[in-house]
Amino acid sequence: MPDTRSALIVDDERDIRELLVMTLSRMGLRCDTASNLGDARNQLQRNTYDLCLTDMRLPDGSGIELVGEISQKYPDTPVAMITAFGNVEAAVEALKAGAFDFVAKPVDLPVLRDLVRHALDLKEARKADASAVSSRLYGESPAMTTLRQTIAKVARSQAPVYIAGESGVGKELVARTIHAEGARVEGPFVPVNCGAIPSELMESEFFGHKKGSFTGAHADKPGLFQTADGGTLFLDEVAELPLPMQVKLLRAIQEKSVRAVGANTESPVDVRILSATHKDLAKLVAEGKFRQDLYYRINVIELAVPPLRERLEDLPGLSAKILGRLAEHQGRNVPALGDDALKALKEYPFPGNVRELENILERALALSDGDTLAASDLHLPRAAAGGDAGVAAAAAGVAAAGRDPRTLDPRDTATSALPSYIEEIERAAIQHALQENRYNKTRTAQALGITFRALRYKLKKLGID
User: Fold this and answer.
1) pTM of the prediction?
2) pLDDT (tens digit, 9 = 90+) per residue, 29-84?
3) What gap in Å lies between CA 188 and CA 191, rounded to an integer?
4) Which of 76, 115, 161, 209 is the most core-located residue (most Cβ within 10 A)?
5) CATH numbers and ranges of domains, the chain
6) Where are the beta strands (DSSP E) in 118-268?
């Protein structure tokens, strides 16, 4: 007969301890209890537990101390904090100290049971192959080694994670890895680009709506929170959320429940929040463009994904992996990078990061026939003459958009008419902006600093579909 899984419950209120013991026992767990820090430490020294639940306030200290000790001394034991209702600061502090999750008093038993199930699933997930993270995020540089180690740690938690990094570094890949390595791997991973949803539809998209709640609502529709129930909700480009929506999102995260548009009651949801943006979120908070309380709520743990130019030692191996994948899709032999090609890549700043590297290599593979790629096959943008930053930026945009950047080099304009050259720059900049904003034309116009009507005219004029 297999050993019964066990839990340690630490609370100085007898009725709370009894409620928790009764609930967990019905889930098949053997429970030990402690009424203070000293008793809890003694129990941990004598026994091994699959889960620990501890109150925030204890007679001889804070439960935060116990969270920190368990995280350090017993890292295989997930620990969850019991906090006072509405005490978000305490919950965030517990998560930063290493808590797996938190539950508020008075204890909601369905929420508690979900928490326990996730904790036990996590215990099993840790037995899986630890090399899985490495297979998703390639790189032997110190920056990538540190990133993978941090991901392995945060995957054990339920804490919200904010993923910071430039466009093209792989923020969504980091989010998917955190989900895949955690206890929610069997649940859904739901990515959403916050900049791609019209503001008037945001509440319905996030929280769902009831039939007849507004014109066009012909049936009940679940929102993104309901779709992600039991799994992970990834808020990409979270900086694009308008302030009114930030208020509603904060409440949904804090209360772990949502109210669909047109509904009279709230529905509980069990989601882990991961978020990302290429913008400086702290700066936006300082400027009053992003709510500080929401920033602190989603930024319990911050992960910084390094740009490609800061880990150039990864270029040879990363390029080889990308070429291998592309060649397999095309059914051809994997070409090698020549020494001159590798040198050219190491000297290029990669404003579009890994995404741009993939575009460059895909284009080179499509245009070359040999088994070795030379520097000339890469068609890397050359530095703009006269220090023209606008042309240089457009050249970077062309590279990221997968176009031939040689048409943008001012030294080549002697052989082409000036209007055609300017038109090519304009086309490249617009296509790059469209890609960056997931083809949301309103956001694209804002990013380019022009009106929506002007963008629509230019799209028609330039023949961009």
Assistant:
1) 0.64
2) 999 999 999 999 999 999 999 999 999 889 998 899 999 889 888 888 889 988 87
3) 10
4) 161
5) 6-125 (3.40.50.2300), 132-306 (3.40.50.300), 312-380 (1.10.8.60), 381-465 (1.10.10)
6) 161-164, 189-193, 232-236, 257-258, 267-268
